[in-house]
Amino acid sequence: MTSTPRPDAAIAIAATGAVGRDRSVGGQVSRRCFEAGSLALLLTCAMATVDWCADMAAMGELPMPGGWSLSMMWTPMCGRAWADLAASFIGMWTVMMMAMMLPALLPAWWRYRQAGCAAGARCPGWLAVQWGVGYFLVWAALGAAVFVAGAALAASALRLPMLARAAPLAGAVVVLGAGALQCSAWKARRLARCRARPGPIGRGSMVSLAAWRSGLRLGLHCAGSCAGLMAGLLVAGVMDLGAMILLTAAVGAERLAPPDLRAERVVGAIAIAAGLMMLAAAIGAD
């Protein structure tokens, strides 16, 4: 006895086929436009991130007990309000995340647009934009949480020298934990969800809602999968260009390399090695 596929399953099957066999002139033009727009967005975000890094470096850092330095981005300066500082940080963080996540995200983004074409969406390009906005809204929300935590820790370190002295040791422990998390089954499950195909396209008035929900869902999965990597970035310094480049490469390797290569475990082993060196340095400094 055969069963009729559900509409959502049929749409997903059609989208998969569309990605593989779309060789029409219109399909090629759409692909070129998507690639050009994506490249322009990536370059814009990357240049803005580099510019912000330069601005943060010009602000200087405050030497702290324990041999490390506190970035002035965590404290309001020259009478600047906390709300302005928070808004600036969240905007900077979101653009930075776009620059780092786009290289690994673009294949999934293109598949979602193709799924919209296969489902007969009136404007699949606009649908893909909504999907992308939903995805990066998750990272913007994470940026708000990071700012609150970072500002609270900075204020505590300024008031409590003992806490400041413990920061290098705590950073080493965080990096070690991040490396261990990379090698865990928890990480493997979330990475598999990041690699999964985007959710189905809705119908009628539900098309836009489905796009937002699909983008938000993937954003949550990816944020969970990148939890350890993000912790390592925060220890290295939010506006450290070298750390950003390494994280971008790590995320791309995890998402785009064949699953059998276990790229996330290779990244985890590197993080553990770095954490051990940081731990030795922190202990030696004491």
What does this structure look like?
- With 286 residues, the protein is an all-alpha fold.
- The chain has one domain.
- Helices cover 78% and strands 3% of the residues.
- It has ten helices and two strands, in the order H-H-E-E-H-H-H-H-H-H-H-H.
- It has helices at residues 7-21, 25-59, 82-118, 124-159, 161-182, 185-195, 207-225, 227-236, 241-256, 263-285, and strands spanning 61-64, 68-71.
- Strands 1-2 form a two-stranded antiparallel sheet.
- Strand 1 and strand 2 (68-71) form a beta hairpin.
- Helix 2 (25-59) runs antiparallel to helix 3 (82-118) and helix 5 packs antiparallel against helix 10 (263-285).
- The longest helix has 37 residues, at 82-118.
- It is globular, with a radius of gyration of 21 Å.
- The termini are far apart.
- 32% of the residues are buried.
- Mean pLDDT is 84; it is low at 1-22.
- This is DUF2182 domain-containing protein.
- The chain crosses the membrane at residues 81-106, 136-155, 162-181, 227-253, 265-285.
- InterPro entries: PpoB2-like.
- Keywords: Membrane, Transmembrane, Transmembrane helix.
The general outline is globular
- The fraction of residues assigned to DSSP E strands is under 5%
Low-confidence segments, given as residue ranges, are 1-22
Overall strand count: 2
Main sheet properties: 2 strands, antiparallel
Integer average pLDDT: 84
Order of helices and strands: HHEEHHHHHHHH
Pfam families: PpoB2 (PF09948)
Keywords: Membrane, Transmembrane, Transmembrane helix
InterPro entries: PpoB2-like
Protein name: DUF2182 domain-containing protein
